[in-house]
Design a protein that fits this description.
The chain is α+β, with helices and mostly antiparallel strands and 209 residues long. It contains ten helices and nine strands. It has two domains: 141 residues, Beta Polymerase, domain 2 (2-Layer Sandwich); 68 residues, no CATH class. Helix 6 runs antiparallel to helix 8, helix 6 runs parallel beside helix 9 and helix 8 crosses helix 10.
C-alpha cells in the first residue's frame, strides 16, 4: 500500500497558487482542504471518490489544477451541501449531474461534485485505489475508470477544445502502460470516445511506439 504516498508526491511539482490573498502554497492548501473535507464527510458517514485533475496527478501525471472534482452518490447531495457550507463554500451551479461550489471569501479551490446513482458509485468505488494526503487516506478513481470519465468529458465541445482531458488520457495510458488492444480498454474506448477523439488518440499512441 506504499503507493498511497503518491498522493502527496504528485503535489511537489505544484508550488503555489496566486489568489486574491497573495501567493499561497498550493500543496498546503490541497492537503488542508482534503483533510477537512474527508473529516467532515466521515462524521456524516459520507463516501466520495477523487476524480478530475487531482486524480490524474495521483496516478502519476502531474499538472496544475485549480479545482477539485469528487464523485458522490446523488442521494447524498443534501448532506454534501451541509459539508460545503461548513467548509465555507457556497453553491454556484447545479444540474442533475453536477453541483458546483466556490469559497464564500473568494480564495481557494472551486469544488465540483459529480452526482451519480448508487450502482455507478459502488462500481467505481470497487475499482478505486487508496492515496494518502496529509493525515488521511482517501479513495481515488482507478485509472481505467478515470480514463472513461475523461473520454466522456471530451464528448462536450468546450472540453474537447480545451484539450487537457485528451492529454490526461494520453499520458495516463503511457505512464501505466495500458494495453490499448485489451478488451477492457477497447470497451471503454468504443463506449465513451467520439470517432475523432478515438482516431486521434490511437494515432498519437502509435507514433509514440
Amino acid at each position: 500500500m506504499r503507493r498511497a504516498s503518491r498522493g502527496v508526491a504528485s503535489l511537489r511539482a505544484q508550488e503555489s497558487l496566486t489568489m486574491a490573498g497573495g501567493c499561497i502554497p498550493l500543496v498546503r492548501m490541497t492537503l488542508e482542504l482534503i483533510e477537512r473535507l474527508s473529516g467532515e464527510a466521515g462524521k456524516r458517514g459520507l463516501e466520495f471518490l477523487l476524480i478530475g485533475g487531482h486524480a490524474v496527478n495521483a496516478h502519476g501525471y502531474e499538472r496544475t489544477t485549480l479545482d477539485f472534482d469528487f464523485m458522490v452518490p446523488s442521494a447524498d447531495l443534501v448532506a454534501w451541501k451541509d459539508v460545503m457550507s461548513f467548509l465555507g463554500y457556497q453553491p454556484i451551479h447545479e444540474t442533475k449531474a453536477f453541483a458546483q461550489f466556490e469559497p464564500v471569501d473568494g480564495d481557494g479551490f472551486r469544488i465540483d461534485l459529480m452526482l451519480v446513482d448508487a450502482p455507478t458509485f459502488v462500481k467505481l468505488m470497487a475499482g478505486s485505489e487508496v492515496r494518502t494526503y496529509g493525515g488521511c487516506e482517501i479513495r481515488v478513481a482507478g485509472v481505467l475508470h478515470l480514463i472513461a470519465l475523461k473520454l466522456h468529458a471530451t464528448r462536450t465541445w468546450d472540453r474537447a477544445v480545451q484539450g487537457k482531458d485528451f492529454y490526461d488520457i494520453l499520458n495516463l495510458i503511457r505512464i501505466h502502460r495500458i494495453d490499448i488492444a485489451s478488451p477492457d480498454f477497447q470497451t471503454i474506448l468504443n463506449r465513451y470516445a467520439t470517432p475523432s477523439i478515438k482516431e486521434r488518440l490511437l494515432s498519437d499512441l502509435k507514433r509514440a511506439v
